[in-house]
From TrEMBL:
It comes from the Eukaryota. Pathway: Nucleotide-sugar biosynthesis; UDP-N-acetyl-alpha-D-glucosamine biosynthesis; N-acetyl-alpha-D-glucosamine 1-phosphate from alpha-D-glucosamine 6-phosphate (route I): step 2/2. GO terms for molecular function: magnesium ion binding; phosphoacetylglucosamine mutase activity. PANTHER family: PHOSPHOACETYLGLUCOSAMINE MUTASE. Belongs to the phosphohexose mutase family. Residues 486-552 form the Alpha-D-phosphohexomutase C-terminal domain. Signal peptide: none annotated. This is phosphoacetylglucosamine mutase. The gene is AGM1. Residues 70-101, 125-188 form the Alpha-D-phosphohexomutase alpha/beta/alpha domain. It holds the Pfam family PGM_PMM_I. Its EC number is 5.4.2.3. Residues 237-317, 332-470 form the Phosphoacetylglucosamine mutase AMG1 domain. It comes from Vanrija pseudolonga.
Length: 858
């Protein structure tokens, strides 16, 4: 669809504003959502996005006017995200990502709460940027295959339609992100040399370049003058992530015949829920395994075979193979960058142009240290930039030929205009030099010059393998990745994490970097960094080291530091590491750790058979004297080594304990595995009496291990309060509410049956039930506390794993304080309450988590 901008009448601004406001009414902004244009544009649930897309339409017009009517691209996609998500990105005239300073404008427009506010913000922006809103503009747009895309395209078109004829539009339909970038660049290319500005133009250009680089050896052809340059190539299985890449691959295949036979996998575009599901580049990279569908196809079983995965919009590419036909080997963005840079470097040498053309590689901090070392050892310069393709892209422009790839497989190779001119005007003095120059020119045409492109990157890889005569294993042989770990840590506010040095060092929270450095120094070839994500509400913790156990240790420390950072008032300018606080307040010599028995039926409490527990951060010695002392009372049983090893309720705490008391070798652990507490008072008192000695000791600290409610049919536990109010004493982050605890008035349904609109959502019912239990623990020394707790457990059957250790603690507190004046001062302070997800229907499940501190003095 396109319309001409010719002879556009002068625009009446008032009418334009009215039209925008009228159209915007159909796309109200969802309340309580704050949108942000991040590294990958806007990205969230597709159903939340219509208003955002509408505002992006307005911005695209302004951006085009800013460039005197050059075409601006709008791509509707959420790339590798799940199918329910969607997103939108703007593409600048040269086919690049939107310039960073405009991201804030996109965010401002997207967050306008009403049509009037939107028009006002739009007006102000145009004024501030001195843009004539009546000037002609041009917008090219496309979407991937997500079910929410057609609705979003309608919202975009509604915004563009408000401008009438002076905005030229070009909907290129359902296609990949890199093809949209290509079309934008080609549309704005006044020389006409870049290629036709259509999907077909892209395919033709790419296929022609590929054919130049791979000479067919079809019958009768004997021209094998190129070293290793042989076609047809071995069939290539391509996992299309059930996304739009399947379309462009099928299209491309038609242009190259049998030169490279593809075996497309995961090509279902009309089936619900399959996009990026258990397939695609992101799946392979993060899981480090074949997609199940690729494994089942058996196509990789031969050691010489290789496979490739695209992501949902085909801008990322990952390769892999099975070493010896068995063990999975990943060939990620780092491996692709190395392959491409070395090959192009060799071509530049053969073209005798090393004094004129510098090849360089651009990576992010996530590039494996081995790849960086390997590239540098080949005298190729390497630049490290912040995460996000736009940063890599701009840094790559500083080289004559800039190879950039993120480890996740997003990247390309940029040839500068001067380089192309140099190649075209160099007079070759030998056939080899001639071929090298021709191949470099063909590569510049094969590789998408606008953005990372799974299809053209895949062809680049195939060209290099063919020219080198390499199998995937030979490609892989260059260097071995250092073992590494990458995890997300959710924090209340990721914006307080600030970095420097291409995101490799934290400047705040103050003190955190020093602790990470300290951890890294202890391991060989260690490297670790923490940075806030630009696309998700989390910080990412990365570590690598010479061995897996060393990387576990470095990673765990960095991860624990980041976790701990979130429980401290980080916003305060003088951030005190919580660990330091913990040491200052408590310096116990003994930790008594009580955890529930998950795997064996146990009467009473069992003792450990071990002398120490190992953690990746160091060993924790057990308090053998105390264990012996308790053993002699004959009130305790024994854990077998297998039971002790299997029990995660104790194990989960060990790295934290070791970390908090790092550098301290003068403390010991007394682990106690708790089964059913004795039911008769005499026995309970006897156990409490045995433990009371440690309770009384100022240098002993008790830790009780437990989670809270496990709700869902998979736990056979679906209690429900249809009328659940807010908890009377809510624990953060539950917001304080007006609710009144009055259990008597609540209708308690043993099992969840159904929910009407008026009923409380399930998660709220769980929240209330958990808080009821927590309320009973707040004053554990009061008369009747144990009985009320047990009655609560028996009434609600709340699936609190650590209910028995909590009962042991209550018994102990009763034993020590009952009837004493000090009992008034013993109280639990709950610091945090969370649910793993918010259940709203019977198919959902969640686990609740509660943390609290028992203070035994005023
Ligand atoms: C570790 C990682 O993979 N980070 C990804 C991710 O960015 P974050 O800022 O880390 O959320 O999404 C970006 C956009 O897709 C991509 O460019 C980047 O590589």
């Amino acid at each position: 669809m396109s319309s001409s901008a010719a002879a556009a009448p002068p625009v009446d601004h008032t009418q334009l504003f009215d039209r925008i406001a009228a159209a915007a009414k159909n796309y109200p902004k969802p309340a309580d959502v704050k949108f942000g244009y991040g590294t990958a544009g806007f990205r969230t649930l597709g159903k939340r996005l219509p208003s955002v897309i509408f505002s992006v339409g307005l911005l695209a017009v302004l951006r085009s006017q800013r460039f005197h009517g050059k075409a601006i691209g709008v791509m509707v996609t959420a790339s590798h995200n799940p199918e329910a998500d969607n997103g939108v990105k703007l593409v600048d005239p040269a086919g690049e990502m939107l310039e960073q300073s405009w991201e804030a404008y996109a965010t401002t427009l997207a967050n306008c709460a009403s049509p009037a506010e939107l028009v006002e913000a739009y007006k102000q922006l145009a004024q501030q940027l001195h843009i004539n809103i009546g000037a002609p503009a041009s917008v090219v747009y496309a979407a991937d295959t997500r079910p929410s895309s057609p609705e979003l395209i309608k919202a975009l078109e509604a915004a563009l339609a408000a401008f009438g004829d002076h905005v030229k539009t070009n909907n290129i339909g359902v296609t990949t992100t890199p093809i949209l970038h290509y079309v934008v660049k080609a549309t704005n290319d006044t020389t006409g040399e870049y290629g036709e500005p259509t999907i077909e133009g892209y395919q033709k250009k790419t296929a022609a370049a590929f054919k130049t680089l791979i000479v067919s050896t079809s019958p009768g052809t004997t021209d094998l003058t190129e070293q290793g340059n042989r076609g047809p190539l071995k069939p290539l299985p391509v996992d299309c992530a059930n996304g739009v890449g399947a379309l462009s691959l099928a299209d491309f295949a038609k242009h190259i015949g049998d030169l490279l036979p593809f075996k497309p996998l995961n090509t279902q575009l009309n089936k619900e829920g399959v996009l990026n599901y258990q397939c695609g580049a992101d799946y392979v990279k993060t899981k480090q395994q074949l997609p199940p569908s690729v494994a089942e196809s058996g196509l990789l079983n031969h050691p010489d075979n290789r496979g490739a995965s695209f992501d949902g919009d085909a801008d990322r590419l990952i390769y892999y193979y099975l070493k010896g036909g068995k063990s999975f080997r990943l060939l990620d963005g780092d491996k692709i960058a190395v392959l491409a840079a070395l090959f192009i470097g060799d071509l530049v040498t053969r073209a005798k142009l090393t004094d004129k053309i510098q090849v360089g590689v651009v990576q992010t901090a996530y590039a494996n240290g081995s790849s960086t070392k390997f590239i540098k050892s080949r005298n190729i310069p390497v630049t490290c930039t912040a995460t996000g393709v736009k940063h890599l892209h701009h840094a790559a422009l500083n080289y004559d030929i800039g190879v950039y790839f993120e480890a996740n497989g997003h990247g390309t190779v940029l040839f500068s205009d001067d380089t192309i001119a140099t190649l075209k005007k160099t007079e070759p003095e030998s056939p080899d030099q001639d071929r090298a120059i021709k191949h470099l020119i063909a590569l510049s045409e094969l590789i998408n010059q606008a953005v990372g492109d799974a299809l053209s990157d895949m062809l680049l890889v195939e060209v290099v393998l063919a020219h080198r005569g390499w199998s995937a294993e030979e490609w892989d042989a260059g260097y071995e990745d250092l073992p590494n770990r990458l995890v997300k840590v959710e924090v209340p506010d990721r914006h307080i994490f600030h970095t420097t040095d291409a995101e490799r060092k934290l400047t705040s929270p103050v003190g955190l970097q020093a602790r990470i450095d300290e951890a890294v120094l202890k391991v060989e070839q260690g490297r670790s960094f923490v940075r806030p994500s630009g696309t998700e509400d989390c910080v990412r913790v990365y570590a690598e080291a010479a061995t897996s156990s060393a990387v576990d240790s470095a990673h765990l420390r960095a991860e624990l530091e980041s976790y701990l950072a979130k429980v401290t008032p980080l916003s305060s300018p003088s951030f005190n590491p919580p660990v330091a606080n913990a040491k200052a307040v408590i310096a116990p010599k003994r930790i008594v750790l009580l955890g529930p028995s998950h795997h064996v039926h146990l009467a009473g409490i069992a003792l450990s058979p071990f002398a120490a527990y190992g953690t990746p951060l160091g060993d924790i010695p057990l308090d053998l004297d105390a264990i012996d002392e308790l053993r002699r009372t004959r009130l305790f049983s024994e854990m077998s080594p297998g039971v002790d090893e299997d029990e995660h309720s104790l194990e989960m705490h060990l790295p934290y304990i070791r970390h908090i008391f790092q550098g301290r070798d003068d403390f010991k652990l007394l682990p106690l595995l708790v089964g059913h507490p004795p039911s008769d008072k005499a026995n309970r008192d006897a156990v409490s009496g045995a433990l009371a000695k440690y309770w009384a000791d100022d240098e002993t600290f008790f830790v009780i291990s437990s989670d809270f409610c496990h709700w869902g049919t998979r736990f056979s536990h679906t209690p429900y309060y249809p009328a659940a109010p807010d908890p009377p004493v809510p624990v953060p982050p539950v917001p304080a509410g007006p609710g009144v605890a009055n259990n008597g008035q609540l209708e308690f349904v043993r099992r969840y049956v159904s929910q009407t609109k008026k009923d409380a959502p399930i998660w709220k019912s769980i929240q209330y039930m958990d808080h009821e239990g927590m309320d009973l623990l707040r004053a554990p020394a009061r008369k009747g506390a144990v009985e009320e707790w047990e009655a609560y457990l028996s009434r609600t059957k709340n699936t609190i794993c650590g209910r028995n250790p909590i009962t042991v603690l209550l018994n102990l507190v009763q034993y020590v304080y009952a009837g004493q004046h000090a009992a008034d001062y013993v109280h639990f302070v709950f610091v945090r309450y969370e649910q793993s997800s918010r259940c709203t229907n019977i198919r959902d499940s969640s686990v609740s988590y509660v943390s609290g501190v028992l203070r035994p003095s005023p």
